[in-house]
Design brief:
The complex is a heterotrimer of chains A (about 325), B (about 290) and C (about 325). In chain B, about 75% of the residues lie in helices and about 0% in strands. Chain B contains 12 helices and no strands. Chain B is flat, with a radius of gyration of 24 Å. The chains are: A alpha/beta (about 325), B mainly alpha (about 290), C alpha/beta (about 325). Chains in contact: A-B, A-C, B-C. The complex binds adenosine-5'-triphosphate (2 copies), iron/sulfur cluster (SF4) (2 copies) and magnesium ion (2 copies).
């Protein structure tokens, strides 16, 4: 394995023309279509989009955990190393070591039949070659870092003996054990109550300051995005429709979908009761994406060309990219 | 404009059954199995018209002859000179019949028992399922063999005996399914809409049970055929001159070295049928399981 | 004016089989523990609380879908809690429910028309086929479904559309009371707004009374006239919407409001607050005294000793906290 030195100007993760499709009995499902983006060191990229817009499949593609009927095309460079087409053994060395993952349901990564200590030490012993005693010491430190009270004793418990929020913390601790350079979080707080969600988000912010890793944070809660991310990527129908730094995106949303999304969130800080703005229609069927813009059925600003031609993702100002034909008008 | 146009023509929906059917059609293994099974069934049903010989007709001149086109015994003859082709088909009749009827018996008892226990729940469920547990613990093969020894070999006894073993599984499966269905929100929604209990069972529970029942039936039939074959192999199955695949295999196995065809043909049919049922069952299970939705 | 719905000290307790083989000690889970409120015709009461605090059980208790332990429920002047199952079934046309999981609440083997027509078959059996279909198509149009989709099956619709089907089924009998049990929690933001708008429209049209359950104060803010906050089966605060958001008095209500992330990076990043610590205690053995005391930032000794009672601190503003 050639060792490529890290350089200052190389992004941590660089995804180019990524396509993920699934072969099903009903035809080809195009879950991720021609996605290109990069994540810098220490940056938090927020990914928003409707259910089924391909967010999870995007990150599963990155760590090569697609379902068996999935197919991957394009290029994913992590620290300069190409991940597409890499041998499973090598990918394993990166996954869990250099890239950590947390999921919506903690029980997808935690094994209910093993104690937390056993699972955490195993990761460290496998990836970092520590012996049991020091692995356990490290694990307890990590559990302390995610604010699990009485970590010393709790580490010998089974996952089901923890409450929902605690389990999520354990999973975060496990993902951070090897101090990964990239942490991928797929809706880590969606299933939690708001009060617990607030704890988890606060924790993640704190941990990022402590460890300085990059984060890809998937969520469909724009409030969470506003609080945690540096850069935001809005996905629709497996494509990027807009990407911008967080302040820019919220202050100056350009894509009609982003705009609609921002307006349809019921907000606590504005006077209520008036009608909510809503985006009419339903999300597109990934089996039969329209030839033009995927949002065309629901877009109220559509122009004739939208039906025929896919809009290109264009940089309209530094770091602000939009895929909409309106942006190409003179 | 688009709206009014669309409103004028009603769109036909695709039910889960139609979906499943489509998916089954795309499953090559299951489809092949259906075709093979259909051919076997046709042969078995049409047996008397396909062969000039009777199944109990003895040809004293041709004992244990090898398959040959010239003398018309295309599968050869057995040790008493009966045509093996027609005997194999008649044996198939018996085996399939045992399989289907015994499965039906277990189906009826099992669904009634399981659905009642599951839907009523509580103490009734407890008692009914404990009975099933107790019956499970009985050494059934032994019991069947005893029955046969006492009452003599009787084909109806075989149906009943086998059906009586298999309904236990059916009852357990149906009960489990009913329990989960009962707690589904659509059943609660129906209750909230004022629908009465019998109607809920009929309109909501039973149709949703059918999928798993169908799969289970296709997997039970081969199991029953095997049990019958086993009994026949022990010499406890159907009575001469009637026969079944199991009985034929038993006879064939006795002089396997000198007349291998007497074993190979019935065994081949038996194996093919079992394979077919299992493939269809698996195919149905995949087709009916709306996992990827 | 008479109230459409009055719930008085409603309790729904579940008996949980205990452990131990010889002498199992049954435990009591107080899912709903003494809730009282009333509801005018045409009014919406929002009910908010974390997962497991008994919101759904309250809804089910009112509808008679779970047995009520004690208390009374008056719908349009009639006591429901002690009616026989048969008598209760007759009243069901006046109260309907929309569930959280849009797909799970629709029978997968029935077509849309069969699903929506089911209550009609029970309560208006005299309708002939044509009239029934007409009614079904009418209500489908009202909730924003194309009437030509009448023969499709639930799995052929998206989540938002399935929820519309559920709403159509609930409305086809023109009920007086509609209980919405987290109708938008499972939906995407853009679809959520559609459904909330639809429910608001319909309520105005039909002068429906609504109980709107949610775990999120921001959704409730949009649709309710009054809001009730629940914690571990008990009411902690109830008042008009504007008052609740302007002047929340119970520490739990405040924590809930603070915890909601605001979709504006400038505000969200400058928000100074301490999220509530810990998780919801097990409802099987709730803390003594005030059930919120394990997480309450203001808890004092008296909170452990004595449970606070509901007090009306100003007109129509009820709080149960010693220090409100
Ligand atoms: N193994 C698979 N076979 C076929 N289609 C699949 C498979 N896995 C995912 N898909 C489809 O890919 C699309 C994208 O799914 P994905 O899980 O990425 O959505 P998502 O944006 O994460 O949504 P959510 O917010 O609900 O998690 C969906 O339409 C899904 O049905
Ligand atoms: N049939 C039942 N038997 C026993 N316990 C039950 C039953 N139904 C609900 N519970 C318990 O009652 C408590 C309240 O449940 P409920 O479903 O009403 O909560 P909820 O507020 O609706 O939560 P969510 O937001 O998750 O829907 C929970 O602890 C639950 O486990
Ligand atoms: S490309 Fe056209 S349809 Fe798509 S978002 Fe822009 S204006 Fe709307
Ligand atoms: S009574 Fe005490 S513990 Fe309960 S909410 Fe009030 S201050 Fe907190
Ligand atoms: Mg996902
Ligand atoms: Mg609930």
């Amino acid at each position: 394995m050639p060792w490529i030195p890290k350089t200052a100007d190389m992004p941590l993760l660089e995804v180019n023309n990524l396509r993920t499709s699934f072969h099903t009995n009903d035809g080809e499902v195009y879950a991720v279509n021609d996605l290109s983006f990069s994540v810098e060191k220490g940056e938090t990229l927020g990914v928003v989009g409707e259910s089924g817009s391909g967010k999870s499949q995007l990150v599963l593609s990155i760590i090569n955990l697609l379902a068996s009927n999935g197919q991957l095309q394009g290029s994913i460079r992590f620290q300069g190393q190409e991940l597409v087409g890499m041998k499973p053994k090598e990918i394993n060395r990166i996954r869990g070591n250099r890239i950590g993952m947390i999921f919506q349901d903690p029980m997808t990564c935690l094994n209910g039949y093993l104690t937390v200590a056993r699972q955490m030490t195993e990761v460290l012993m496998h990836h970092q070659g520590l012996d049991y005693a020091s692995a356990k010491k490290c694990s307890i430190e990590m559990l302390d870092a995610v604010h699990i009270p009485d970590a010393k004793n709790r580490i010998d418990r089974y996952p089901h003996e923890f409450s929902g929020g605690m389990r999520q913390r354990v999973m975060i601790a496990m993902a951070l054990l090897c101090q990964p350079d990239l942490l991928i979080a797929d809706e880590p707080s969606t299933a939690l109550d708001v009060t617990v969600q607030a704890q988890i988000i606060q924790l993640m912010n704190e941990l990022q300051q402590e460890f300085g890793m990059s984060i890809i944070m998937i969520t469909h809660d724009l409030g969470v995005i506003a609080g945690i991310s540096d850069n935001v990527m809005v996905m629709y129908g497996g494509r990027i429709c807009e990407q911008a730094p967080v302040f820019e995106l919220f202050d100056n949303p350009r894509h009609p979908y982003t705009l609609g999304l921002l307006q349809s969130v019921p907000r606590l800080d504005t006077a209520g009761s008036a009608k909510l703005h809503s985006i009419p229609g339903n999300p597109p069927n990934l089996l039969r994406l329209p030839p033009g813009c995927a949002f065309v059925d629901r877009c109220q600003k559509g122009i004739p060309v939208c039906d025929q031609k896919q809009p290109r993702l264009r940089e309209i100002s530094p770091e602000h990219r939009v895929a909409c034909h309106l942006e190409e008008l003179p | 404009m688009n709206q009014t146009l669309a409103a004028s023509t009603e769109i036909r929906g695709r039910s889960l059954w139609q979906d499943a059917w489509q998916r089954l059609l795309r499953n090559k293994a299951a489809l092949t199995a259906v075709v093979v099974l259909a051919i076997i069934s046709l042969l078995v049903v049409a047996a008397p018209w396909l062969s000039p010989y009777e199944f109990d007709e003895i040809d004293w001149d041709l004992i244990s002859t090898a398959p040959s086109l010239e003398n018309g015994h295309i599968f050869g003859t057995d040790s008493v000179g009966r045509d093996l082709f027609v005997r194999t088909l008649y044996g198939g009749r018996m085996s399939l019949m045992v399989g289907i009827i015994a499965t039906l018996v277990s189906l009826i008892i099992g669904i009634a028992w399981g659905a009642t226990a599951g839907y009523i729940g509580g103490r009734v469920d407890n008692i009914m399922m404990r009975i099933v547990d107790i019956l499970y613990a009985m050494p059934f093969m032994f019991f069947v063999i005893l029955l046969m020894v006492f009452f003599g070999r009787n084909i109806y006894l075989i149906f009943i005996a086998i059906g009586a073993i298999n309904w236990l599984d059916m009852a357990r499966i149906v009960r489990g399914q009913t329990l989960t269905l009962k707690n589904k929100e659509f059943v609660e929604a129906a209750t909230a809409c004022g629908v009465s209990t019998p109607r809920i069972i009929l309109r909501h529970i039973v149709p949703n049970l059918l999928g798993i029942v169908v799969v289970y039936v296709t997997l039970t039939i081969p199991q029953v055929i095997l049990v019958e074959s086993f009994l026949s192999f022990l010499g406890l199955g159907v009575q001469e001159p009637n026969t079944s695949w199991g009985a034929l295999v038993n006879e064939g196995a006795q002089d396997m070295e000198s007349a291998p065809w007497a074993l190979l043909f019935p065994a081949g049919f038996l194996a093919a049928t079992l394979f077919c049922f299992n493939f269809i069952g698996d195919g149905l299970r995949d087709a009916l399981d709306p996992k990827d939705r | 004016m008479t109230k459409l719905l009055r719930v008085d000290d409603l309790k729904v307790h579940f008996r949980i089989p205990g452990e131990g083989l010889l002498r199992p000690r049954h435990k009591t889970l107080r899912a709903v523990d003494g809730i009282s409120f009333d509801l005018d015709a045409g009014e919406t009461l929002g009910i908010v609380g974390e997962s497991g605090c008994g919101k759904s059980t309250l809804a089910r208790g009112i509808l008679g879908l779970v047995p009520v332990t004690s208390g009374s429920i008056w719908l349009a002047g009639e006591e429901l809690a002690h009616l026989s199952a048969r008598a209760l079934r007759k009243r069901r046309q006046h109260m309907q429910i929309v569930f959280q999981d849009p797909l799970a609440s629709l029978d997968p083997r029935m077509t849309v028309s069969e699903i929506i027509a089911e209550p009609l078959q029970v309560f208006e059996p005299s309708l002939d086929k044509k009239e029934r279909k007409h009614k079904v198509q009418g209500i489908m149009e009202r909730v924003g479904l194309l009437p030509n989709q009448i023969n499709r099956y639930p799995h052929e619709f998206s989540g938002g559309q399935c929820q519309r089907i559920g709403i159509a089924r609930a409305l086809v009998l023109k009920p007086k009371l509609l209980i919405c049990d987290e109708p938008v929690s499972a939906l995407d933001v853009s679809i959520q707004a559609q459904i909330i708008n639809l429910l608001m429209d319909i309520q105005e049209d039909m002068q429906l009374s609504m109980l709107f359950i949610a775990h999120d104060l921001s959704v409730v803010k949009q649709i309710s006239h009054r809001v009730m906050v629940m914690y571990l089966g008990k009411m902690v605060e109830a008042t008009t919407r504007d008052e609740l958001y302007r002047d929340p008095r119970h520490p739990y209500t405040r924590a809930l409001i603070d915890a909601i992330p605001i979709p504006d990076p400038t505000i969200e990043r400058n928000k100074k607050f301490e999220p509530l610590q810990g998780d919801l205690p097990s409802p099987l053995d709730p803390p003594s005294g005030c059930s919120f005391r394990t997480r309450c930032p203001m808890a004092a000794d008296s909170c452990a000793a004595e449970a606070p009672t509901q007090r009306e601190i100003s007109e129509g503003h009820w709080v149960s906290c010693h220090f409100a």
